[in-house]
Amino acid sequence: MVTVSEIAKDKIVELRQKDGLTDEFAIRVAVQGGGCSGLMYDLQFDATQQPTDHVVEDKGIKILVDRKSLLYLAGTELDFSDGLNGKGFQFKNPNATRTCGCGESFAV
């Protein structure tokens, strides 16, 4: 299961409104090969649910995760930081054994 922090929820709602998207647009969280650690996170708005998607709702945010990505993302919390050390969405993934400095790449 993938969850969102309260601050990430607020940022998702803000970005969805800024882009003129309705509540029908969910957050799609996926894992792709690449990056300096071997795997990369992918995060985007998506209004199309695929038959093989795992669907979760947390704090009113609908989250879509494809079956393959779910293996890497189980237990992950999506957070948001706007601090001095970096601004943007962060993945708190208990399955990651190594992450790169940018926070967008990981290994298991």
Can you walk through the features of this model?
The chain is of the alpha+beta class and about 110 residues long. Helices cover about 20% and strands about 45% of the residues. It has 2 helices and 9 strands. The chain has helices at about 5-20, 65-75, and strands at about 5, 25-35, 40-45, 55-60, 60-65, 75-85, 85-90, 100, 105. A 6-stranded mixed β-sheet has the order 4-5-2-3-9-8. A 3-stranded mixed β-sheet has the order 1-6-7. The radius of gyration is 13 Å and the shape is globular. The model has no long low-confidence stretch (mean pLDDT about 90).
Topology record:
Blueprint: E1 3-4, H1 6-18, E2 26-33, E3 39-46, E4 54-58, E5 61-65, H2 67-73, E6 77-83, E7 86-92, E8 98-99, E9 105-107
Parallel strand pairs: 1-6, 2-5
Antiparallel strand pairs: 2-3, 3-9, 4-5, 6-7, 8-9
Organism: Fibrisoma limi BUZ 3
InterPro entries: ATAP, ATAP_core_dom, FeS_cluster_insertion_CS, HesB-like_dom_sf, IscA_plant_cyanobact
Domain Core: 2-104
